[in-house]
Amino acid sequence: MTAKEMVRIAKAALEDKKGMNLKIIDIQKISVIADYFMIVSGSNRNQVQALSDSVQEELGKQGVHPRQIEGYQSANWILMDYGDVILHIFNEEDRLFYDLERIWRDGILVEAEEL
User: Fold this and answer.
1) 2, HSE (Cβ side, Cα atoms, 13 Å)
2) CB atoms within 10 A of CB 58
3) What average pLDDT does range 34-40 have in this prediction?
4) What count of other Cβ atoms lies within 10 Å of the Cβ of residue 51?
5) Helices 3-16 and 45-61 sit at what angle, rounded to 10 degrees?
6) Which CATH code, of 3.30.460.10, 3.40.50.300, 3.40.190.10, 3.30.1330.40, is assigned to 3-114?
7) Residue ranges covered by each domain of the chain
8) Under DSSP, is residue 107 helix (H, G, I), strand (E, B) or coil?
9) CA distance linking residue 113 with residue 91, whole number of Å
10) 77-81, strands of its sheet edge to edge
11) Per-residue model confidence as pLDDT tens digits over 49-101
């Protein structure tokens, strides 16, 4: 499965659970870490975990499983590493504090229609 296909599936899963302010950043030309970063917010611990669960379930149906998941228990910032796609699921406060969009501003912001 291509990275773009994983992003499409993850995007739908995040939207299904009402993830807020989803940003997809193409980092292929500026980093070897991954092809895409996905950053999304949840309003509380339960929603942040539900967003993570939804992505894991939908990608799992396609036989795609995360290499690693960090931060699930605290649910302030859940990092899901799918190799070419890395998801950052934040509570609103921590997202503002870490401001990954600023750190990765040299990446290309991908509009949903481009996927």
Assistant:
1) 4
2) 18
3) 96
4) 29
5) 140
6) 3.30.460.10
7) 3-114
8) coil
9) 26
10) 68-70, 77-81, 85-91, 36-42, 20-26, 108-110
11) 999 999 999 999 999 999 999 999 999 999 999 999 999 999 999 999 999 88
Report CA 20 to chain centroid distance, whole Å: 11
Q: Are 62 and 1 in contact (CB under 8 A)?
A: yes
Q: Give yes or no for a contact between 3 and 35, defined as CB atoms under 8 angstroms apart.
A: yes
76 in helix, strand or coil? coil
Q: Which DSSP state fits 111?
A: P
* Three-class DSSP labels, 5-54: HHHHHHHHHHHHCCCEEEEEEECCCCCCCCCEEEEEEECCHHHHHHHHHH
pLDDT the model gives residue 111? 83
Task: Scan for tokens 């290499």, then name that residue.
Answer: 67
